Automatic annotation (TrEMBL):
Entry's EC annotation: 1.5.1.5, 3.5.4.9
A Pfam family this chain is assigned to: THF_DHG_CYH
Residue span(s) of domain Tetrahydrofolate dehydrogenase/cyclohydrolase NAD(P)-binding: 139-281
SUPFAM superfamilies attached to this UniProt entry: Aminoacid dehydrogenase-like, N-terminal domain (SSF53223), NAD(P)-binding Rossmann-fold domains (SSF51735)
Swiss-Prot/TrEMBL keywords: Amino-acid biosynthesis, Histidine biosynthesis, Hydrolase, Methionine biosynthesis, Multifunctional enzyme, NADP, One-carbon metabolism, Oxidoreductase, Purine biosynthesis
HAMAP family hit by this protein: THF_DHG_CYH
Catalysed reaction equations from the record: (6R)-5,10-methenyltetrahydrofolate + H2O = (6R)-10-formyltetrahydrofolate + H(+); (6R)-5,10-methylene-5,6,7,8-tetrahydrofolate + NADP(+) = (6R)-5,10-methenyltetrahydrofolate + NADPH
Role this protein plays: Catalyzes the oxidation of 5,10-methylenetetrahydrofolate to 5,10-methenyltetrahydrofolate and then the hydrolysis of 5,10-methenyltetrahydrofolate to 10-formyltetrahydrofolate.
Name of the protein: Bifunctional protein FolD
Chain sites annotated for binding NADP(+): 165-167
Protein family: Belongs to the tetrahydrofolate dehydrogenase/cyclohydrolase family.
Subunit structure and binding partners: Homodimer.
Organism whose genome encodes this protein: Ruminococcus flavefaciens
PROSITE patterns for the chain: THF_DHG_CYH_1, THF_DHG_CYH_2
Amino acid sequence: MAQLIDGKAVSAAVKAEVAEETAKLKDEKGLKVGLAVVIVGNDPASRVYVNNKKKACEAVGFQSYEYALDESTTQEQLLDLVNVLNRDDRVNGILVQLPLPKHIDEKAVINAISPDKDVDAFHPINVGKIMIGEYSFLPCTPAGVMRLIESTGTDITGKQCVVIGRSNIVGKPQAMLLLQKNGTVTICHSKTKNLKEICLGADILVVAIGRANFVTGDMIKEGAVVIDVGMNRLDNGKLCGDVEFESAEKKASFITPVPGGVGPMTIAMLMKNTLTAAKQQAGIE
Ligand code: NAP
């Protein structure tokens, strides 16, 4: 039976590290850390995420600046705000909550954020830096996954790592981070043939596809580390992952639950990125 990887505990440890360093920077260097969170429209899920980010900022001692814009905000108005925030010294990190309303081009907005303040690490410059291993920030969810794998004591070097999903925000950067830790990485997607066989070869399996209970125990190698990034809302309102937990936990050595696995890590890593941004902007790191 697998051991549970406790995302809440690991994320609390990350936030405690950030809070300690933030307090020290304030005491010793008078440095304050600020995160601007921009939300456009009234999407309820986005509202919950933004509130959670604000709460996390308070918990670690950051200033948070919320900009809640009307659904009818034009792309030009949003770009103007991003430009103002790029120049605002109180703001070390800028997060524009996605998805944006359909009339706004997300790419144009992401590209307008100064790469130094791009704490989501979505800007093409930061994406490129991850490719060459010279990054300042890592995208929050894949970075959180790396921290969870690390918490199991697993050495990634030489391990067969399989990532299911190739999105720009999870699958692709995840594969790159595992490669940088010397894993032998296979990326799977909706056109992959023999998915089950490939999964059965995985010592480390990261699943990020957005399909409830898609990966079942018979697809998992005995003793594998299984990380479930998926967050799917069932008809009964319950949250569930991309991995069928009951059958998978019988095969895995370590497994993340949903909720309480990868989810809490994403915000913790956002706090870490914002602290890194503040230090870099102050010339400390
Ligand atoms: P996405 O952009 O929709 O990408 C899904 C990926 O899964 C695609 O690459 C797709 O392949 C692949 N896929 C879909 N069906 C498949 C199948 N039957 N077999 C193999 N691959 C398949 O999703 P995402 O943004 O990466 O998110 C993935 C999941 O993670 C979602 O449930 C999301 O809610 C969750 N998530 C959680 C967090 C967190 O903080 N916990 C953060 C981000 C995302 P193609 O490229 O071929 O279409």
